[in-house]
Amino acid sequence: MRDILPVLGRWYAAGFPFGLATVVEVSRSAPRDPGAAMAVGPDGQVVGSVSGGCVEGAVFELAQEVVASGEARLKTFGYSDEDAFAVGLTCGGEITLLVRPVTPGLDPAFGSVVDCVAAGEPVTTATVTDGPARRGATLAVRPDRVSGTLGTSGLDAAVTADARGGLALGATGLRHYGPQGQRREDSVSVFLQSFAPPPRMLVFGAIDYAAAVARIGDFLGYRVTVCDARPVFATPRRFPEGVEVVAEWPHRYLRDTDTDERTVVCVLTHDPKFDVPLLQEALRRPAAYVGAMGSRRTHTDRARRLAAAGLTERELSRLRSPVGLDLGARTPEEVAVSVAAEIVALRWGGTGAPLTATEGAVHPPRPR
Asked: Would you say 115 and 100 are in contact if contact means Cβ atoms under 8 Å apart?
């Protein structure tokens, strides 16, 4: 959804109605997660995807129908059998879509959501998917204000409280309420989609490998910063456009930088005078991933120095070193793929093994 919002914002500002299909619920081996979106706009233009190609043709027609009728619809697609003309998912999973028309009249808060996401400000959209409330009614919730309505003040208040709690975690999913927001009832289904600012990737050591890691981090949606104490190396021209480059001692920069449970830290300096104070700071603060480059001999020496500096076994266990998965990588670009693969596997609970050597669902349930 975040990827297609700039296009949707232009359609919305120009007054072009469009049909927006959003995945609100999945089961088993579904190809896309909740929040994946596809839109059909003026002259049949299409942006986004909800299934990777399995049901997009049917969704295209449905989106045009809801624009013509002005009424949102809920549609579930499951497994398609041997009938080559059946519309469904070949993966055996199931997805439920909310397909709704979007215009300034039907959704007056949509433009502000686009602006918030573009500015990197947190916002959650809450949309009624089923129940006695109007399907497609939307509420935009920010930390300090609310736009739109779901139909009743009680429902707005309950959803606003939950949306603000979920916004801190970037949570997306269905919640259930009574018509007046009663939490012990489930007659009204509301889809909450949080747009938290992009997670950060902090890359330390402005070497060739850092440029490749920064490039793939930007591709994966991280807000990337490269930091090095040597100004001759920490220059923007050596890195992709959009990557922040800072000339500062790594541990001092990290000490003054906020991190959270989504932050990725990649230490590529492999020099004790940089590594040890930097990793002392990194391993004692919130972060999803802390990886350090170097040989196994370097890792052993680094771990010894960190233990001598007072880090506990639990803190040291967070360190991914040598960094990356075993792909046989050699070039900076290959090493960047190895590092990115480890980050993705850790995020989603993957094993890193070839899929041909595993069994069960290709897309397992999200880890808690």
From this structure: no
Sheet of strand 264-267: strand arrangement:
244-247, 223-228, 200-204, 264-267, 289-292, 319-320
Q: Both tokens of residue 136?
A: 């497609």
Rounded to whole angstroms, the Cα distance separating 293 from 275 reads 10
What is the tens place of the pLDDT at every residue in 333-365?
999 999 999 999 998 888 888 888 888 766 655
Domain 200-348 = CATH 3.40.50.720 = yes
On whether the pTM is more than 0.70, the answer is: no
**Phi/psi-derived region of residue 86, left when phi > 0, alpha when psi is between -120 and 50, beta in every other case:** beta
Cis peptide before 322 (omega within 30 of 0): yes
Is 1 within 8 Å of 39 (Cβ atoms)?
no
Q: Per-domain residue ranges for the chain? A: 1-106, 107-197, 200-348
**Beta-carbon neighbour count of residue 233 at 10 Å?**
15
* Dihedral sign for Cα atoms in the order 130, 131, 133, 139: negative
